[in-house]
Amino acid sequence: MKTKSNTARRLLALLLSALLILPVVNVVNANPAEAAVLNGTDHFDYFSKVYEHLDDENHVFQTLNYEELVNLFDSKGSYVVLFGGAWSESTQANIGFINQVAKEYGVDTIYNFDTKLDGQNFEIADSSNPYAYKYVDVIHEYLTNLNEILPEADTVSYPAIDQDGADITKAVKKIDAPFLFVYDGTNKRIVDAVQTEQVWNDYLTNGNLDPAKAEAYKAEVRLVFDSITTEVNGIKTTNDDVIDYFEFFKTAYNKNANIESATPTNIEIFNDSDQSVVYKYVTYDELTNLLESDGNYTILFGGSWCPNTRAAIKFINQYAKKYNVGTVYLWDTKLDGGVDVAKEGNIPHKNETLQVRSNNHPYASLYVDIVTKYLTNIKTQNNAATPPSVISYTDANGNVIKGDRLQVPFFFQYNKNNKNADGTAAPILGHIELMYTWTSIQPDYVSSAGTGVHHRNYTNALDSLFSRVEAVPTGLTAVPPTTSAQLDGKIAGTTNKALEYKLVSVMEYKSVTGDAITNLAPGTYNVRYAAKAGYNGPTPNATGIPTAVLYKAGQSIEIVVPANTDPSGPITPAPAPTSSPSPAPTTPIGGDNDGTPPTATVPAIADSATGALAAKASATTISSLVEQVKKAEAAGKSSVVELKVEASAQTKSVELSIPRSAFNDAATSTNAGLKLNYGIATVVFGPEAVDNISKAAETGDISVIVSKVELTDEGKEVLGDRPVYDFSVFAGLSPITTFGGSPLQVSVPYTLKAGEDPHAVVVYYVAESGLETIRGYYNESKGTVDFTTSHFSQYIVGYNKVSFTDVADTAWYENAVGFLAARGITTGTDEEHYSPNASVTRGQFIVLLLKAYGITPIENESNNFKDAGDAYYTNYLGAAKRLGITNGIDGTTFDPNREITRQDLFTLLYRSLDVLGELPAATANVSVSSFSDAEQIADYASDAFKSLVEGGVIAGSESKLSPREVSTRAQVAQVLYHLLSK
Questions:
Q1: Looking only at Cα atoms, what is the longest distance across the chain?
Q2: Which residues contact 755 (CB under 8 A, 6 or more apart)?
Q3: Is residue 288 over pLDDT 70?
Q4: What is the DSSP letter of 966?
Q5: Cβ atoms of 670 and 624 closer than 8 Å
Q6: What is the overall mean pLDDT for the chain?
Q7: SS in 3 state form for 398-442?
């Protein structure tokens, strides 16, 4: 069994790259595949629901059923396992502490197995239970050193017969919950473990959680994780493994398919072309909690032991992916999956030991209660039979409780709160119960009904089931008519949904086809899911047509299609159902050669529920702005087109769409930049970026989206509650993330918190590899954080105050040192000291300079300096030489350890700014010749001093430039700060 290793995981930056909660945004041109993810279905988190003290949506736990447990124990590698359940007060009390330490160590997954197979009473770790052998056999086979780990524990046993036919008592130690351990699958043994009996009250002092008491238990947990942990440079890496779920499914289903064959075969249910599975096995307690929860869930009853499930499992997986269903929750009516670890030649299909969907089974109540309590509108071939086939049990009061016996695979969509249009409860929205074999379900299988009939039956049934995965329609968007005189409004977002609609004043519904309901007049409409079929057997050989059973229409929602109030052209779709329009478009202003950019305010439609604004600039507006730019350029002036969208305090996202033809015309006929002022953020695209966007292959309109994004609770623990923004550009449906290397200027509003140092406000880019600090600063005059980037993604406004004991608050260089240290451009000479008066070497300055401007070092540069060596500056020297920032002393050597003079420093700085296109314009009314020591400047440094003096970067001291003096760390910091903080 393949596993995925957790080695070298949990660097802080890697963690943070996944700590964002994205808001729901109604985008006009965003990729529909991304927008449709989960397609109305919900995710269920069992642990968050049942464990009061866990309080972490991003916890590390994953349940195991019995079959999954055996699979894990059969796998090579090191796994972290927790035996325990929500019924256990001790597990309830300690699971949160275990989670905290696991995250501290970077443990990816802790696999949780409950010896109470129903989460309540069915305890297999109990000698009095007739199924105690299920516990004993698995412990005896895999946890071979449990007696050493728990020498004082009670035992669990059952009478058995040894290989010689003699009667014996087979016994193992009893594991009490919670029991946390590291399992070595290679050697089938426990590496280390911790067990506790403490309950929540044991951790309290005067009614409050006592951190010291909690820390004592957490210290024991750390010892367990230390057994598989290495530490390098203070960073702990836990070498635990995780089960590859796809490999598990492929192995289990393929193996069982071939076990039952009378002749040797090589049946492949799953192969590498499937790549992944959407399935999540759930335990019995997990299933009942899911069925009691709000939401839309896709559920399959079946197992790898079942030939009919094996026939359908691959196609269900394919169609779930096709319809963007995130998870199919899979429950096995055989609580052990038909697995028997001690029985040679076990055939899971024939092993009925824990098949609770059986009459006379001691635990038949588990199945019957599922049907009678939750699946109240169940439709199955068996309940249509004569007589109906049921499963029953007798309760404590002597009452016989009966439930319809469904067949597996039984595939259905579920919402506990769903009601039909007539108001009757109907938690099952649709189902498939068709019994085929792997052979007969193939597309080329020939039956008396024809070729591929069974395959078409099942895939058509899947199309039907996935056409309704939610109780009521969501994700619909109302679009007003294109003009006030047209009746071509629509309701978009109907793709793959079996809907029907009507005006509220009309009685009869009409069916919906395609991606939208079209040709609508302004008004209020009812939209609902239409009645449709579910499918049972039998399928007579003569026709091969399955039995269809009716599911009634669902409850309706109201969608308002607004009237068009914009005479200039189409309006961007309004998020339904509640919306309010923003002001009408303003006439473009500015651009009359007076230095002000030509500007227009674009009307937007707001969704009060999500805080989303959607706006679309008309072609007329863009054309007017372009004409003003042309006039300015004819007068020899550069210009920037500005489009404004007025946001409110409740705005969380803004999308502005620009007609593609108008955008391309602006790009080709002018050299203008584009400024988008959204209120929640301002973005300026330079002319090169505008040109790059216009050349995108996709022909659709250009949309620029800015969203306020939230950190998860875990992210807030690390960074604090910091502002996060997501920026994206689309050409039609295709995202554009880079802009030909052209820098973009971004500004977001920011109010300093009490006590914050403005120089410690930083900007992080959320990259795949973690957080990267980029060029940015707090602009006090505007109350914004301004930064520069060459690509779009997520960005965090962070805070990273760094102080040194030898940098006084009153020192002239204090702001500069704090600014650079907060961004990781410079560090101290040790943890507490900066050593501001220490000199700087040439190698040190190259590193500082390239870090400051985000220039990437080059590894293994073949044309590096001869004395570059193998040091902290080596790769930086390679980059500086490659870019032409320095030629060194003589073209071949750099002398990196020599103290740097001011003229060398300014020469390197000048060349860097020249390479980056950021040389300052001449603004100062001063020249180099006005300084008394100007003649001391070497020829190679003369251009640098001229540019930087006239640009106001170098001011000198006491009428001197001191070109040959050695630069101190404080002086270097001040120079870089002067440039980077503007």
A1: 112
A2: none
A3: yes
A4: B
A5: no
A6: 87
A7: CCEEEEECCCCCEEEEECCCCEECCCCECCEEEEEECCCCCCCCC
Q: Report d(CA 709, CA 716) in Å as an integer.
A: 12
| Measured CA distances, 637 to 595, 629, 674, 837 (Å) | 8, 9, 15, 46
Give the CA angle between residues 351, 352, 354 to the nearest 5°. Answer: 115
pLDDT of residue 901: 93
**Residue 669: what pLDDT?**
92
Tokens of 151: 């020498």
Take residue 525 and report the two structure tokens written for it: 């409409």
Reported as a single tens digit per residue, the pLDDT across 892-905 is 999 999 999 999 99
* Mean pLDDT, rounded, for 468-477: 95
Contacts 24+ apart (CB under 8 A), 4-9: 4/241, 4/242, 4/243, 4/244, 5/77, 5/239, 5/241, 5/242, 6/106, 6/107, 6/108, 6/238, 6/239, 6/240, 6/241, 6/242, 7/237, 7/239, 8/237, 9/106, 9/108, 9/237, 9/238
pLDDT tens track for 330-344: 999 999 999 999 888
**Residue 255: C-alpha distances to residues 247, 259, 601 (Å):** 12, 6, 65
Q: Could you give the CA distance from residue 253 to residue 249 in angstroms, rounded to a whole number?
A: 6
Mapped onto helix, strand or coil, the DSSP state of residue 103 is helix
| Tokens 């397609």 sit on residue | 39
**Helix H or strand E encompassing 155:** strand 155-161
pLDDT at res. 39: 59
Q: Roughly how many angstroms between the first and final C-alpha of the chain, as a whole number? A: 57
Instruction: Please give the Cα distance from 336 to 304 (Å, whole number).
Output: 11
| DSSP alpha helix (H) spans, 191-280 | 211-226, 245-259
Q: What is the DSSP letter of 542?
A: T
Question: HSE on the CB side for 834, CA within 13 Å?
Answer: 28
On the question of pLDDT at 3 being above 70, the answer is no
pTM: 0.59
Q: Name the residue among 628, 698, 619, 705 with its Cα closest to residue 663.
A: 619
pLDDT at 576: 38
Pairing of strands 612-616, 653-658: parallel
Residue among 287, 211, 289, 279 at smallest CA distance from 250: 279
What does the alpha-carbon distance between residue 926 and residue 953 come to, in Å, rounded to a whole number?
12
